[in-house]
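Deliverable D4.2, example record:
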Amino acid sequence: MDRKITGCIVTYNNMRTVGKAISTVLSCTKDDFTLFVVDNGSTDGTVEFIRENFPSVTVIESGGNIGFGAGHNFIFDRLDSDYHAIINPDVILKDDIIGNMADYLDSHEDVGMLSPRILFPDGREQVLGKKIPLPHYLIASRLRGKKPGKILSDYAMLNCDMSQPVQIQNATGCFMFIRTSLFKSLGGFDERYFMYFEDCDLTREVNKISKVLYYPAATVYHEWGRESKKNFHLKAVQIKSMFKYYAKWGLSSK
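Output generated by the structure prediction step:
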């Protein structure tokens, strides 16, 4: 099938993980595929490493740490594809999920964006919110123990049948697969969020005019260090984004 797919990874000092992410994305993807890496001012040699080891990747330097959403938006003028993958620098692919997801969107015109199944590298399921991130859900997520309680289970839809595609209200930004025309028509990510909540925001924008589905037939392996739980500065950034999100959307569950 004649279709074109693009992907973008935004990096900021991700030297430790980005090589494996790029390698697996390129080796697994069989379609006509162009991968962009937008670097937000890394000082760890990331740019030089990628250019030396992955000459087929288009590396673009944003000129500073402009944030996650703005970094992904930085390549807007270069996107001429049918579908676009938003990829974290700490994910690993093990098969051609990009082609798989493109096949699904090819045959489901009412769906605008897909969110894959996401596992830790060792195969454990990641418990991620799939409903609108209301305060009680976020508190439960922050206070999670070894096993998710009732509120977190509800937030992650653990008690629902997730063996088939199902519409969700919240897709994680570690890997999103979207129709390029839709992504561009929405203006990409809302750049008011430096980092965090821009994925929740985009999901809601897509759901207003199309559908966002959890798509379990595609699996991504994600390192997910939950850095905001360990780093005070990132925690502050997350809280700031949370208030921006609620100022925009309110506290409604719809």
